[in-house]
Amino acid sequence: MNSDTINHMASAIRNAILAHEADIEGLDREIGDGDHYINMKRGCEAITNISAELAALPAADALNKIGMKLLSTIGGASGPLFASFFMSMGKSLKTSEHTDTLAIALAFESGVHAIMQRGKAQAGEKTMLDVLIPVASAFKHLAEQGRSAKEIALGLKNVASEGLESTRNMLATKGRASGLGERAIGHLDAGAKSCQVMIHTVCDLVGNS
Predict the structure, then answer these.
(1) Integer Rg of the chain from CA
(2) pTM for the complete prediction?
(3) Chain segment 92-102, per-residue pLDDT in tens
């Protein structure tokens, strides 16, 4: 991974989030705060706007800079959570004893753990973590097995989709949806949908490279 790759992925993610505006906004209107898509769009645009600065940095420093930018750009609960994710990823890459795919998998796992700690949340609470936690686990497992990039990409897309669908019949215990009780059952979580879109986008780039 290098800064050019990070910029390429950031641009693709921005386009994918814009393309899924109706889906994400619709889900958030049903059981969320109604501002999730706006915050996601703002964050994506903030990252693409600093692409020249990121290009001059090593990957670990670029990820940390992304985290800092998101912390000052995204409102609501998403900002600190995604900021923690990228900053933790950057720290993990900088200090990693591993290289290549496994290093990235461990950095991703570190980022997800940072979200869990910051949000005091775990799997099964109808949040983005219901996508991120199983994807992190699968990513690490597949990387340790030495699977090819295409195999990993395909596997993670499936896990992300399964994680998103798992939120449909969950009782929400975090965020605004938690106040809806059983009325939130039957709806997908908007944060989980955003994460599924982003993971699919990155996996498509990797799988088709």
Answers:
(1) 16
(2) 0.92
(3) 999 887 768 99
